[in-house]
TrEMBL record:
Native source species: Allosaccharopolyspora coralli
Reactions catalysed according to its record: L-histidyl-[protein] + phosphoenolpyruvate = N(pros)-phospho-L-histidyl-[protein] + pyruvate
PEP-utilising enzyme C-terminal domain boundaries: 20-288
Presence of the UniProt keyword Kinase in the record: yes
Name of the protein in question: Phosphoenolpyruvate-protein phosphotransferase
MF terms (GO), sorted A to Z: kinase activity; metal ion binding; phosphoenolpyruvate-protein phosphotransferase activity
Annotated binding of phosphoenolpyruvate, by residue: R54, R90, N202, D203, R213
Keyword entries, A-Z: Cytoplasm, Kinase, Magnesium, Metal-binding, Phosphotransferase system, Pyruvate, Sugar transport, Transferase, Transport
Cellular location(s): Cytoplasm
Record EC number: 2.7.3.9
Source domain of life: Bacteria
GO terms of biological process kind: phosphoenolpyruvate-dependent sugar phosphotransferase system
Function comment: General (non sugar-specific) component of the phosphoenolpyruvate-dependent sugar phosphotransferase system (sugar PTS). This major carbohydrate active-transport system catalyzes the phosphorylation of incoming sugar substrates concomitantly with their translocation across the cell membrane. Enzyme I transfers the phosphoryl group from phosphoenolpyruvate (PEP) to the phosphoryl carrier protein (HPr).
Family: Belongs to the PEP-utilizing enzyme family.
C-alpha cells in the first residue's frame, strides 16, 4: 500500500512540501516527468508535485524549432493532469547526451563541455524568450503552479540573468540546476539571485569526477554515494538554510531511498525522481527523525568512497 506520508492529496502547505521525517519535518517528495503519461503516473504515485519537467523530451525528434503555440500545447498536455500541483519546468537542456536537430551547434570535440543547456541561450537568446512565453501561456491554460529552472548553469551571473528573463516573461518563480561544481561552490551567491536550486546529481557527479556519465566503465566514479558529491550537496544544504530558500535534488540519487534520507540530512528540502520510486522513498524518509538522517549523512560524508559511505549510513541508522 502507498505510505500515507506521500499519499497527501490536498494542496501542500508550502511550495514543495509533502513528505515528512519521523519527527515531522516536511520534505518534498516529487516526480520527474517528460510526457503526459509521466504526469499521470506522478499523480497516481501521490507525488507532492513535479521537481523536474524535462521539456527537451517533448521535442527530441523535432527537425525545426517548435512554434510558441506548438510548445504551449505540448507543455499544457503535461501540466494538465498536474493541475494545482507545483511543477518545476526546466528550459531546454539540449546538447551533449540530448542533441536536438534544430539546435546543432556544429562540431564540438567535447559536447558535454560544450554549448548545452542554458549556454544555448547565449547563442540563441530569442529561443529562450519564446520558450518562456510558451511556458507562461501553458501555465495560465492549465492552472498549474509553475516555476522555471535553467539547466547547466555555472555562474551567479548566469543565474541572475535567467531569473530576470523569467520574470520578464511573467514567470515569477525561477531557479537553476546545480550540475557544475563551480555552481555548487557559488551556492550562496546563486541562491541570492534565484528563488530555489535543484541539484542534478547525474551531471554534478560527471563534472566533479571528470567521468562521462554515459560510460558504464566509469559507473563507480558516477556513483551518487561518492562522498565528494555528498560534500557538495552539504555545501548547498548549508546555503539553503542560510538563505531560507529550497534546495532540491532531481538526479538519480533521489530515487535511492536511503540516499534520499541522507540528502535530507544534508539539508535538502525536496527530492524528485521517477514516479515509480516515490512510494519507497517517501516511506523510507518517514522512518527516521531528521537528526538521525543528519547523523547518517555525517557518517557517509566522512568516508573515503561510495561503498564505505553506503555502509556507514546504514550502520548509523541502526
Ligand atoms: C541531472 O543531471 O542530474 C539531471 C537531473 O538532469 P539530466 O539527467 O536531464 O541531465
Ligand atoms: Mg543534467
Amino acid at each position: 500500500p502507498l505510505p500515507t506520508v506521500v499519499a497527501v492529496r490536498e494542496r501542500p502547505a508550502e511550495w514543495d512540501c509533502v513528505g515528512r521525517t519521523a519527527d515531522g519535518h516536511s520534505v518534498g517528495v516529487l516526480a520527474n516527468v517528460g510526457s503526459p503519461g509521466d504526469a499521470t503516473s506522478a499523480v497516481a504515485a501521490g507525488a507532492g508535485g513535479v521537481g523536474l519537467f524535462r521539456t527537451e523530451f517533448c521535442f527530441l525528434d523535432t527537425a525545426h524549432e517548435p512554434t510558441v503555440e506548438a510548445q504551449r500545447a505540448a507543455y499544457a498536455a503535461v501540466l494538465g493532469p498536474l493541475t494545482a500541483l507545483p511543477v518545476v519546468v526546466r528550459t531546454l537542456d539540449a546538447g551533449a547526451d540530448k542533441p536536438m536537430p534544430f539546435l546543432h551547434a556544429g562540431f564540438e570535440p567535447n559536447p558535454a563541455l560544450g554549448v548545452r543547456g542554458l549556454r544555448v541561450a547565449g547563442e540563441h537568446p530569442h529561443l529562450l524568450g519564446r520558450q518562456l512565453d510558451a511556458i507562461a501561456a501553458a501555465a495560465s491554460d492549465t492552472g498549474a503552479q509553475v516555476s522555471v529552472m535553467a539547466p547547466m548553469v555555472a555562474t551567479p551571473d548566469e543565474a541572475a540573468s535567467f531569473a530576470e528573463r523569467a520574470r520578464a516573461a511573467g514567470l515569477n518563480r525561477a531557479g537553476v540546476m546545480i550540475e557544475v561544481p563551480a555552481a555548487a561552490l557559488h551556492a550562496r551567491e546563486i541562491l541570492d539571485a534565484v528563488d530555489f536550486v535543484s541539484v542534478g546529481t547525474n551531471d554534478l557527479a560527471q563534472y566533479t569526477f571528470a567521468a562521462d556519465r554515459m560510460l558504464g566503465a566509469l559507473a563507480t566514479l558516477n556513483d551518487p554515494w561518492q562522498p565528494a558529491l555528498l560534500r557538495l550537496v552539504e555545501m548547498l544544504g548549508k546555503a539553503g538554510r542560510d538563505t531560507g530558500k529550497p534546495v532540491g535534488v532531481c538526479g538519480e540519487a533521489a530515487a535511492d531511498p536511503v540516499l534520499a534520507g541522507v540528502l535530507v540530512g544534508l539539508g535538502v528540502t525536496s527530492v524528485s525522481m521517477a514516479a515509480s520510486a516515490i512510494p519507497a522513498v517517501g516511506s523510507r524518509i518517514t522512518q527516521h527523525a531528521r537528526h538521525e538522517w543528519e547523523h547518517a549523512a555525517r557518517s557517509a560524508i566522512s568516508t573515503p568512497g561510495a561503498e564505505q559511505a553506503r555502509e556507514a549510513a546504514r550502520a548509523a541508522l541502526g
